[in-house]
Here is the input.
Amino acid sequence: MNRPDVTVITAVYNTMPYLTRCLTSLVEQTIGPDRLEVIAVDDGSTDGSGRELDRFARLHPGTVKVIHQPNSGGPAAPSNRGLEHATGRYVFFIGSDDYLGPEALERLVAAADRYDSDVVLGRTVGVNSRYIHQAVFARTEPDLDLFDSALPWSLSNTKLFRRDLIERYGLRYPEDMPVGSDQPFTIEACVRARRISVLADYDYYYAVRRLNARNITYRSRHLERLRCAESLVEFVAGLVEAGKRRDAILLRHFTWEVAKLLENDFLALDRGVQEQVRAGVRKLVERYLTDEIRDQLPIQARVRLGTARYGELDDLLAVIRQDAEEGIPPAVVDGDHWYAGYPGFRDPRLGMADRWFEVTDRIADWIARLDTVSVSFLGNRTLAVTARSPRGDLPRLAAAIRLRAGETVSANATLEADGNGTLVRAQLPLAGLLAGVAPGGELRVVRAEAEAFGTVGETALRGPARPVPQRTVQRRGGHLHVLTATTNHKGELVIAVAPLTPRRLLARLRHRLPLGGKK
Here is the structure.
């Protein structure tokens, strides 16, 4: 048998019925069965996924190979098992609830051969409103620099890797990481690669958000996530010497993995767990968060990470409560400098430098910070949003305020100053929200734009303090879509646009009706 061009590895654990679409998308690839090897590792599934894998293996002998093993607790062990059996020139990893575009593998292999690339990324799109960072897919780049591009924000393993590279450096997944184990693998592959390419000419990979479950990343507990964040940061520090190159990668980890440990849900943890998380974050910030990383962090993450380093637990809780319960903090203006007036600012007990709080170089962004008061759909035409700024002088500072969701922009908002700040009212056209929606739907963050001080700033609109999802069903062409205005895990106002498929309709009916179909 000839050596296949590409081995696709998928770690499988209880992903029915999504698994069927995943496997179908693989065996129907235009690259053809003679050039393809699929290795599926069943990690102790209990929902019939193992039987479905065996069915595909019977239907496609010689192409689909199945390995069954007891549950390992994460995707690392089954991914490593797949690598042990891979024979292709290239290896591609796919989540067992995701799927590929029909020409994906053929195009990826052709590009790797054409450019002599060790790693190739194909444009990834989200399904069922799953968020995918898109900056790295802005254009096709035959030779991408890991340290001078948006690649650090797209470090999942869903890429094509040259297998010789993997074996030359003995790259494997750390099996002691239940969350994020693909990132050390991907980071080292990208650091070692002679050439990395990104393809933006086709929808290669469809990343699915399950309607019936939440993935392991979001189910994991804070202490597990802290341990994995520590492992990631320490791994990067051991792989890349200190300096701008390391900072380029660690900026992503402090913005995502580390800062997410201190999001609003931190308030609900037991105090003992809170203290352990704060202590762990403090060590990471002390050791690896440079001034260059600090100055690039969003203000909310910057202040929380700084307070975790310099303050005590109650100081950190006060900062988080400011955002979660009290709203946008006041701005402190000192000469030409603007600062976010969070608890702890210029508190001698903490001794935090003003730079942790400074927003001078992002004044327009700061002015654009708004708290949502109410959201409602007005008939079939618009989404009406009322928000509030704590600044009573907003009408004087901002030449214009608009709301944006994706490419949809409101007309200039109306501003009404009062003794408590300024009310901002704007409307987003629903037709724009429906335009250009991907087949699997999209999740669009609502952002406020402010023209101020000669620049245009923007900031995600904070969602209502007590969110009540607002929904409407709209028709576009021959298809129905559900539009939902709600708040995401970051506390931001988002619009989810999703096709009303039979599966989604059935899920909605099951949610609304008890067993037996009677209310």
